[in-house]
Amino acid sequence: LVNELDSISSNSISGIIAGISMGGWMTTSLGERELPSIAGMVILLAGRPMHAKPLPPGTSLRNIPVYIGAGETDPNMMPARKAREFYKRNGALCAHHRRSLPPSFGWKTG
């Protein structure tokens, strides 16, 4: 399987990648690395790492849909907002939604 995966050109892959929480952070890293081979990204309860490198020269997010979702009390709300600003500034079709989640969801509200 590994040999077959290695033989696939990343240029032939076009899909939407998505992740929640830690998977959302990984989605930003993988998605940016695989540009322009991806069709879009869904990033939930996460953002773009502060230590992330700038996009390589010639790499474009133009017209790539990016959805970012976070809860109002999510500690990742600020990184999610910053990710939205970054992706919009770089041409992505970006949507960012925040939701009120019940305190029982697991985050402190105070």
Query: Biggest sheet: strands side by side, in what order?
Result: 1-2-3-4
- What about the largest sheet? 4 strands, parallel
Poorly predicted regions are: none
List the helices and strands in order. Answer: HEHEEHE
DSSP helical segment count: 3
How does the helix and strand content classify structurally?
A: alpha/beta
Strand element count:
4
As a percent range, the share of helical residues equals: 25-40%
What's the gyration radius in Å? 15 Å
Shape field:
globular
Residue-averaged pLDDT: 82
- Classify the beta-strand content into a percent band: 15-25%
Q: Alpha-carbon distance between the termini?
A: 48 Å
Task: Walk me through this protein's architecture.
This protein is α/β, with parallel strands linked by helices and 110 residues long. Helix content is 28%, strand content 22%. The protein has helices at residues 2-7, 22-33, 77-89, and strands at 16-20, 40-44, 65-71, 93-99. It has a 4-stranded parallel β-sheet, with helices on one face. Strand 3 (65-71), helix 3 and strand 4 form a beta-alpha-beta unit. It starts with a helix and ends in an 11-residue tail after the last strand.
How does the SSE layout of this entry go?
Elements: H1 2-7, E1 16-20, H2 22-33, E2 40-44, E3 65-71, H3 77-89, E4 93-99
Parallel strand pairs: 1-2, 2-3, 3-4
Task: Describe this protein with a few key phrases.
single chain; 110 residues; alpha/beta; 28% helix; globular
